[in-house]
Amino acid sequence: MRRVTNVVLLCGLVCLPAGANTAGGVGALPLTDGSVVERRPTQVALPQRSISNILSLESDSTTLSGGYGKPRGIFGSLPLTIGPKVSALGLPSPFRAGIEAKWDNSYGIGFDVGAFPVTSMQDTKVKIASYVGTARYYPWRGPFYLGLGVGTQNLTGSRTQAFSGADYTVTLGMDSVVVVPQVGWRWVYQSGFFLGVEAGLQVAVSSQQSVTSDAPSIVKELATYQDMESFARKQADVLGKIPLPHFAVLQVGYFF
Known about the structure:
Elements (H helix, E strand, L loop, with lengths): L1 H14 L13 E2 L5 E2 L13 H5 L5 H4 L15 E12 L3 E9 L3 E15 L2 E14 L6 E20 L2 E23 L4 E21 L3 H4 L2 H19 L2 E11 L2
Antiparallel strand pairs: 1-2, 3-4, 3-10, 4-5, 5-6, 6-7, 7-8, 8-9, 9-10
């Protein structure tokens, strides 16, 4: 009879939910003969992070709970991280450097300074500098974000040409206010190190031009000189109105 009773109690133990009886230890159940049967706690397998779900627009339960990347930094309990960032292999500025911050893995702001080194094309030299602040929103609190940048860009082009037996240089400067809608990804590690890519479009909403020259007045009256200056202004008008691709193939930074 005692054996039957023990069998019945063991069957009840299997049917009980985890943690229903805590006597004698976790999941322990005393038998009629005074012995105790220990029940091992139920093990729940946590979802594994993999390349596939990192590249996905959606986030797993770990991300949604705020555990993605480095949710907190040097400001203690505040869900704020901040740090430097550099970008390379991009357009219209191949190289950019700046600072970026994230709040609660949901919102971000950044400021970047971009530069296009002096490039010579035949007799023309071109240089670009940009200053852009960007707001970012991470809809799934994971790597993917939507962003909007606003800033200024300065383009300087100069050309040297011979007139009346002497070389003179014409310099065109154009300052533009630009907006940069974009999308991108930030892969943030728990250490704070992050990698990123982004792509978008740079649109000039307004621009101002200036043309200077070291040529004397008599040279400026020549038809060939006026043709060159007119060509430079037309090129500036085109650059000021056509949207330019905005992207960065490699971004590297660290959140403190």
